[in-house]
Known about the structure:
This protein has 319 residues and is α+β, with helices and mostly antiparallel strands. It is 36% helix and 11% strand. Strands 1-5-4-3-2 form a five-stranded antiparallel sheet, with helices on both faces. Strand 3 and strand 4 (273-281) form a beta hairpin. Helix 1 packs antiparallel against helix 2 and helix 2 crosses helix 3 (50-65). The longest helix is centred in the first third of the chain and has 17 residues, at 11-27. The protein is extended, with a radius of gyration of 33 Å. Residues 130-149, 163-170 and 175-185 have low confidence and may be disordered.
Amino acid sequence: MVNEVSQGKSSQTRLQLLTAVMKLFFKRPPECQGMLGRLLQHCIDEETDMDVHDRALLYYRLLKRGVSHAQRVVANPKEAVTLFAEDRVVEAKDRLLSEFNSLSVVYGQLSVNFVPQEPPYTLGTGGSEPESPFQPSTLSSPTLPRSYEPEQQKRTSRPSVDTSVVPLGVTPVPSTGDAAVEDLLGFGLAPEETPPVIELKENPQLSPEEFESQWRLLPQSESLELQLSVIPSPEELEQTMTTQRISTMASSPPNQAIAKFYFYAQQADAEMFFFIETVIDSGSYLMTSVFKCSDAALLELFKEHFRKSLVGKWMPLEF
């Protein structure tokens, strides 16, 4: 059906085919990767029906975000509906319908159960009854003060700042144009933050004792689960990590059903290390990795660097 998708099938059939192939891809990634890629390419590049085109583009962007994210959206289990409108009490339902043009229907409560809103202030002086703020007398045009300025002059003039009033312990800052307006209290303008950049050191040096000590001290910060299409050998995985400046501390013997690896890397401009524990289950083709580091922002970048090093070799290509 995928190979014949362009031969006059209805738009509803193509929509159902897209969803079915996506769900099948989550179950059998190696067999369905090429089929899903051809189907998405046809529906995005050649499809004339906008519903089918938009659905394919949505699936493509979900897969680009991550297979696990796409699976939660497309193949998320649905909750069973247990309460229906027909099962509600007829009398209560009729009373709600009498207040249909209100929030009673939205919240399922009658308006008498709502908390009435009261103004936080009252008008009037002395012991006289306070005047309602909604009286017509309060809606008349206010008297303009003497210091009123024309609208055009207000737009061109800048409000004056009383520099004689300075908070205790704060040194006054001389006016320097717009900077003085933005920094009225004299705390100084905050410098622009530089986004963190991951830059790994080549051939980092770390002893097994130091690795074990740091691993025990640092809490688990990030974890990552990846569905592999091919199980790499220990030599291939370690060689790939070396090209990415990630060194191997220890690994399981070859031909193990559950293989475990310990990797580490070092930030080039700091004495900070990244630690990884990776477990590969050859039965389910599932790779689970735990990442540890003292810097949470850099750790997130390092986790993405680790994931991208596997794409195209042992993981499905990003569409």
